[in-house]
Amino acid sequence: MQPTGLKPAGPFAAPERAAVYRAINERRDVRGQFLPDPVDPAVLRRILEAAHAAPSVGLSQPWNFIVIRDGAVRAEVRRAFEGANAQAEAMFDGSRRALYSQLKLQGISEAPLNLCVTCDRQRGGPVVLGRTHDLDTDLYSTVCAVQNLWLAARAEGIGVGWVSIFRDDDLRRILGLPERVVPVAYLCMGHVNTLYESPELEIRGWASKRPLDEMIFADRWEGRP
Ligand SMILES: Cc1cc2c(cc1C)N(C[C@H](O)[C@H](O)[C@H](O)COP(=O)(O)O)c1[nH]c(=O)[nH]c(=O)c1N2
Fold first, then answer.
1. pLDDT tops 70 at residue 3
2. Is the C-beta atom of 153 inside 6 A of ligand 1?
3. In the chain, % of residues over pLDDT 70
4. ipTM of this model?
5. Does residue 189 fall inside a structural domain?
6. How far is the CA of 122 from the centre of ligand 1 (A)?
7. What is the 28 CA–ligand 1 centroid distance (Å)?
8. How do residues 167-209 score in pLDDT, each as one tens digit?
9. Contact, 67 vs 115, CB < 8 A?
10. Has residue 2 got a pLDDT over 80?
11. Three-class SS state of 81
12. Which EC number(s) does UniProt give (predicted)?
């Protein structure tokens, strides 16, 4: 007799597996391909349900989703990006700086929907199972929710672009976040007709994908000390 709550768990049927891997492999970070069409609330709901189904430390579910449609708020966020991006550009030298200045790194105003995924660092109380020795596991949990969201959005034909070039204080002020709440991911979202076949940063010559075999070590760290 199986204990209550268990159900059979075998591999998915081949087309279902293919769909999962397709979503993973065809997910892209979107900056410039957003269409102005609004995102259907039912579609957004499914995408947020996917995010909310993510694993979380001690089942603390530390995330919130701030849904931003207001153009005035987006304009303010866009200004915050411009300020931080000017600082960012100055951190690179020579030809890297020139290339950086040509990259489009956000679609805040073009995307009809922006979403800030936050992490409440006090969710679940003072002691959370699994977070007792690594306080950042609530942040890792929130990132799991972001990845679920990103994959579900791909399956729905909704592009997502993550923007992290902000001064923390700016986002906090604009979105009215209390001290205990961390803005983990600022996402631009909207319908897309086309997506790049590989990461745009690779196509534009900024960075390239590394082979998986370089990433796999056996038993111990095998890279540079
Ligand atoms: C935590 C974090 C933060 C950012 C990003 C991603 C992640 C995970 N990415 C997107 C990033 O550049 C992109 O994921 C990689 O280049 C790989 O491309 P694909 O996502 O596979 O298309 C990103 N992109 C961008 O244009 N502006 C940004 O500020 C950021 N910030």
1. no
2. no
3. 99
4. 0.99
5. yes
6. 27
7. 9
8. 999 999 999 999 999 999 999 999 999 999 999 999 999 999 9
9. yes
10. no
11. helix
12. 1.13.11.79
Residue 89 has pLDDT above 90, yes or no: yes
Per the prediction, the chain carries an average pLDDT of 97
Q: Tell me which DSSP letter residue 192 carries.
A: B
The atom number, within ligand 1, closest to the CA of 206 reads: 16
Residue 208 counted as domain residue: no
Closest by Cα among 132, 112, 124 to 70: 112
What DSSP designation does 12 have? P
Q: Which domain holds residue 168?
A: 29-193
Residue 37 alpha carbon to ligand 1 centre in Å: 23
> What CATH number does residue 142 fall under?
3.40.109.10
Pairing type for strands 181-191 and 113-120 reads antiparallel
Is residue 13 situated within a structural domain?
no
Asked whether residue 5 is domain-assigned, the answer is no
Going from the Cα of 170 to the center of ligand 1, the distance in angstroms, rounded, reads: 20
28 C-beta closer than 6 A to ligand 1: yes
- Amino acid, res. 223: G
- Residue 181 to residue 99: CA distance in whole angstroms: 34
